[in-house]
């Protein structure tokens, strides 16, 4: 599913109106009708006060149209117009007249805090103050209204976006954003819905298909894409009858140190469970028996040093090398890591202490082979790219890092975002139960397993993140969030593959409730 910019969505509106021969007010009526249907389906005629707060632009026009439709259905509607400017959109004015022709209970104008209404605790509140075009801070008294609405703690429904939220740039004042219980967004999700700073402003996102021009939506490229079940299905590579273990490649997991062999064990198991034909673990000598016993399917080679890596002697040919899990950052390990990078041309998946070693000497980034994958959590990312002021700056810095290595960077967390140059791929699977030690090691193994099988680097990263989260979702159904451990993700990887193509399974792309992946 594509994630469009505000400019693209406005162009989609214009194209739809032109190709269908309809006026903007007719498209607004259509969109408002879907919001009305959603509310009516939820309430089923139940009488409770509905408070609608409207701006004076097109979002306010949507709100007035919804209010009129609810009035015509017999609901108890109280509408308010926030008079923050003398400029009104044409569609707002048309819907204002239509509203007045529907009822004698005209909308009340709010011009200052003295006009703020008391909001009954049982009310349904509809937020139609500002839409996707907002790009400047709210006036002080309008911000006070937002705070007044948020303090009411009533069920709040945002039309298209929670008011106060910017779509294509960082929201400058996070205190001045409506906290929505549900956001009914038109046609496509918006990028801020998936970013840590702005995601909390809506507990649930539901996408309303308002019938914008299909050709425009299909042919218009976007810089951001949601990785849904349908997307993941297209990434999956089928297996042929006469395949053998050599068909599916050979991965190497290089890592581990005294007391941290569990990280390698998890990565190795995950790589094999994902489908790598062969997998070798390269560990310090202290890990030999551990790996041979814990993962009999894997081969094991050891460094000359007992408790840590010092030599990094890789002589055999591998399709991919995963490096960093449990590695440690000892000075001798650091020197061996640098020597390894200087001699290696095999694509890498770099995680954990591999990332920390890169952060300590950023010149080493120039030695990362093309089409490698870095998998930092936010703390590791900050050490790599420096501090950021907001989520949008974080994304820009990560794009720059991707271009520097000419590879992929996976920002782990809720809605893990995979970045390749200027493009973002946003995950839709996962949950808070994955916020447990070792989850990131499992992801490293999964991506290595896919790269070994011949997936290209971008697909391996995106598909791997999706499978990782899907396995976590399945595990949470059996263990609950609190009891999950990283090994559970490996146990459910097979089920995640099966789930991809189960006919009765429906991927919920219109809700982010529960889609909170957090990887360590």
- Major sheet characteristics: 11 strands, mixed
Instruction: Work out the helicity level.
Output: 25-40%
Quaternary organisation: single chain
Q: What ranges have pLDDT less than 50 throughout 5 or more consecutive residues?
A: 505-520
Please tally the helical runs, counting DSSP H or I stretches of 4 or more residues: 17
Sheet with most strands: strand arrangement: 1-9-18-17-16-15-14-13-10-11-12
Q: Name the average pLDDT.
A: 95
The counted number of beta strands is 18
Beta-strand proportion: 5-15%
Task: Name the shape in a single word.
Answer: elongated
> What structural class do helix, strand and pairing data support?
alpha/beta
What do you see in this structure?
The chain has 520 residues and is α/β, with parallel strands linked by helices. 40% of the residues lie in helices and 15% in strands. The chain contains 17 helices and 18 strands. Strands 1-9-18-17-16-15-14-13-10-11-12 form an 11-stranded mixed sheet, sandwiched between helices. The chain has a 7-stranded parallel sheet with strand order 4-3-2-5-6-7-8. Helix 2 crosses helix 3, helix 11 (353-360) runs parallel beside helix 12 (378-385) and helix 15 (457-483) packs across helix 17. It is elongated, with a radius of gyration of 26 Å.
How is this structure best summarized?
This protein has 17 helices and 18 strands. The protein starts with a strand and ends in a 20-residue tail after the last helix. The chain has helices at residues 6-20, 24-43, 58-72, 90-100, 140-152, 214-219, 229-235, 261-274, 288-294, 331-343, 353-360, 378-385, 391-405, 439-452, 457-483, 486-491, 493-500, and strands at 2-3, 50-54, 77-82, 108-110, 124-128, 155-159, 182-186, 205-208, 224-227, 250-254, 278-283, 299-302, 320-323, 348-350, 373-374, 408-411, 417-420, 423-427.
């Amino acid at each position: 599913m594509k994630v469009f910019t505000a400019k693209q969505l406005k162009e989609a509106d214009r194209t739809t109106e032109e190709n269908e021969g309809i006026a903007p007010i007719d498209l607004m009526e259509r969109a408002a009708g879907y919001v009305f249907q959603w509310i009516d389906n939820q309430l089923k005629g139940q009488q409770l006060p509905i408070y609608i707060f409207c701006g004076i632009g097109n979002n306010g026009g949507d709100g007035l149209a919804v209010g009129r439709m609810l009035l015509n259905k017999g609901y108890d509607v109280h509408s308010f117009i926030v008079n923050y400017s003398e400029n009104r959109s044409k569609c707002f004015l048309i819907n204002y007249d239509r509203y007045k022709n529907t009822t004698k209970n005209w909308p009340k104008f709010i011009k200052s805090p003295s006009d703020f209404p008391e909001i009954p605790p049982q009310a349904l509140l509809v937020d139609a103050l500002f839409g996707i075009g907002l790009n400047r801070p709210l006036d002080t008294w309008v911000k006070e209204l937002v705070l007044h609405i948020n303090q009411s703690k009533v069920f709040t429904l945002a039309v298209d976006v929670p008011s106060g939220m910017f779509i294509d740039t960082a929201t400058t004042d996070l205190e001045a954003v409506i906290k929505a219980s549900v956001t009914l967004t038109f046609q496509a999700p918006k990028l801020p819905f998936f970013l840590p700073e702005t995601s909390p402003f809506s507990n649930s996102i539901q996408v309303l298909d308002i019938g914008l021009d299909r050709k425009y939506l299909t042919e218009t490229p976007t810089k951001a894409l949601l990785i849904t079940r349908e997307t993941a299905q297209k990434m999956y590579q089928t297996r042929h009858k006469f395949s053998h273990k050599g068909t599916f490649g050979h991965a190497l997991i290089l890592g581990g140190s005294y007391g941290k062999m569990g990280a390698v064990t998890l990565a190795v198991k995950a790589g094999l469970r994902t489908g790598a034909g062969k997998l070798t673990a390269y560990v310090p000598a202290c890990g030999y028996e551990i790996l041979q016993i814990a993962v009999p399917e894997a081969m094991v080679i050891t460094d000359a040093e007992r408790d840590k890596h010092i030599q990094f002697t890789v002589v055999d040919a591998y399709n991919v090398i995963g490096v960093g899990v449990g590695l440690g950052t000892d000075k001798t390990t650091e020197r061996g890591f640098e020597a390894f990078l200087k001699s290696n041309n095999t694509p890498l998946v770099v995680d954990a202490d591999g990332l920390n070693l890169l952060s300590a000497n950023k010149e080493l980034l120039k030695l990362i082979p093309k089409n490698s994958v870095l998998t930092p959590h936010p703390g590791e990312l900050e050490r790599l790219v420096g501090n950021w002021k907001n989520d949008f700056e974080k994304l820009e810095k990560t794009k720059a890092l991707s271009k520097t290595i000419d590879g992929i960077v996976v920002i782990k967390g809720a809605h893990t975002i995979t970045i390749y140059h200027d493009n973002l791929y946003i995950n839709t699977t996962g949950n808070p139960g994955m916020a447990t030690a070792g989850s990131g090691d499992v992801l490293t193994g999964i991506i290595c397993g896919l790269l070994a099988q011949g997936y290209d680097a971008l697909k391996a990263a995106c598909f791997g993140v999706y499978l990782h989260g899907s396995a976590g979702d399945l595990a949470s159904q059996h263990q609950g969030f609190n009891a999950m451990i990283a090994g559970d993700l490996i146990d459910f990887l097979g089920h995640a593959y099966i789930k991809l193509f189960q006919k009765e399974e429906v991927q919920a792309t219109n809700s982010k409730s529960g889609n909170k992946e957090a990887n360590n």
